[in-house]
Design a protein that fits this description.
With about 425 residues, the protein is of the alpha/beta class. The chain has 13 helices and 23 strands. Strand 6, helix 3 and strand 7 form a beta-alpha-beta unit.
């Protein structure tokens, strides 16, 4: 495989562009996992054509799920095989890994899951601990991949899980419980300070589309009601995290972007990034299916901002910060240490190399504005979002190279094409 560097084109004048976003990876991966434990055919429209989706689809095939891909849709016929030993390669997809762990917990046959070296660095220990406590065998070194699991998960009414590192552990358990066809309500108690609650709300919404009711009882307890997952057709909306890059570009360059497949009915937490752009002075117009962001002639300073509820969008704001008119203080970043790379410290290192003053703590960063960015080759650390977020800085400097142009293929293979339409 050839690694190609890429010079991010400078945006030299205001633009007006229309962008159709790739389908939401979060929504699509959830629906694919749900389809694996649903009897009958699920037809999914809008699944993004990216590495994460491809990895998930290959794993479903290995699990015995019938998958047929068309140009405009994917047909998935479940349920998966529950007995045959299988080996799954999640590649670089952390979200797929956690969902597959949940599916594996339902199987009596052994499931071995592995992936890219960067994925092996990410812990799954809180999820493994829960599964061991509820009847599953889990063989893993230090709570990381590779792992071999076998179930089935017991049917006790209450599960407790640490939610302070990743909401994906909770999503995996919710879908696993829904796949058990439970006959009485099952409670999930969240221990510790929950990060990324909006991602749990996405899971609640996606399960509702399949006939399963999951709801919050209080700030730290969920209940999944009895029911059977139903097949049918689902359309995946645009990805709200991908939207942050174009929202930010429009805001920074006094420009306008219309997002054609993402509106204010979404349950994706990163959609709240639009509110941050409004605080910077942008005009945001929304309806059920479209969002328009029109950047200001003069940026406003951003007050201290907590990104706990939208951690994937935090990197976009971090990359914007040196271009804002005053010091930017961002909090609620502890979960960034556990992403594809340490997005808090890795981004700080790259910003410093570009001449930006940055101070970090375990949970926050303080970034000073800069008059001129130094030419730099960005280390992406195999992290797609590092490349896309830092393209904002390249759009101003015209002197930022990305160390691997293809890193964006993980979730957004057409990113540079869409970026090129506004540059």
């Amino acid at each position: 495989m050839t690694i190609r560097t890429y010079l991010i084109p400078r945006i030299s004048k205001p633009f007006s562009a229309t962008v159709t976003l790739p389908g939401s990876k979060s929504n699509a991966l959830r629906q694919l996992a749900i389809a694996a434990v649903t009897k009958g055919q699920s037809t999914l429209f809008g699944v993004p054509a990216c590495d994460d989706s491809a990895a998930m689809l290959d794993c479903l095939r290995a699990l015995g799920v019938k998958v047929k891909q068309h140009k405009d849709r994917i047909e998935v016929v479940g349920p998966m095989n529950y007995d045959k030993p299988v080996i799954l390669n999640a590649r670089m997809s952390g979200a797929s890994t956690r969902l597959l762990i949940g599916l594996a917990a339902l199987r009596s046959g052994s499931t071995t899951i592995d992936g890219h070296s960067s994925l092996r660095e990410r812990t799954n220990a809180p999820l493994f601990d829960v599964l061991r406590q509820h009847g599953c065998r889990v063989d893993s070194a230090d709570g990381k991949l590779p792992v071999t699991l076998s179930g089935p998960l017991d049917s006790n009414t209450s599960i407790s899980v640490d939610g302070s590192l990743s909401s994906q552990y909770i999503t995996a358990l919710m879908i696993a419980v829904a796949g058990q066809n439970i006959t009485k309500p099952r409670h999930i108690n969240i221990i510790g300070e929950l990060v990324s609650r909006p991602y749990i709300d996405i899971t609640i919404n996606e399960l509702a589309k399949r006939g399963i009711t999951a709801r919050w009882l209080n700030e730290s307890e969920l209940v999944i009601e009895p029911g059977e997952l139903t097949p049918g057709s689902i359309t995946v909306e645009g990805d709200a995290t991908a939207a942050t890059y174009f929202s930010a570009l429009a805001t920074l360059h006094s420009s306008q972007v219309t997002l054609t497949n993402l509106g204010n009915t979404t349950h994706q937490g990163d959609y709240a990034f639009c509110e941050l752009m409004a605080k910077l002075g942008a005009q945001v117009t929304q309806n059920e299916t479209h969002t328009v962001i029109k950047g200001p002639q003069k940026l406003q300073p951003l007050p201290p901002t907590d990104m706990t509820s939208m951690p994937d969008a935090a990197l976009t704001l971090i990359a914007m910060a040196p271009l804002l008119p005053a010091t930017t203080h961002i909090e609620g970043l502890s979960s960034l240490h556990h992403k594809e790379c340490d997005r808090l410290e890795c981004s700080a290192k790259e910003l410093r190399s570009m001449g930006v003053a940055v101070d970090t703590t375990q949970d926050s960063t303080k970034i000073q504005p800069v008059r001129e960015l130094k030419a730099h080759t960005l280390s992406t650390y195999h992290d797609h979002r590092m490349a896309m977020a830092f393209s904002l800085l390249g759009s101003v400097s015209g002197s930022l190279l990305v160390d691997d142009k293809a890193v964006v293929d993980k979730t957004y293979p057409d990113y540079w094409l869409d970026y090129g339409r506004v540059s």
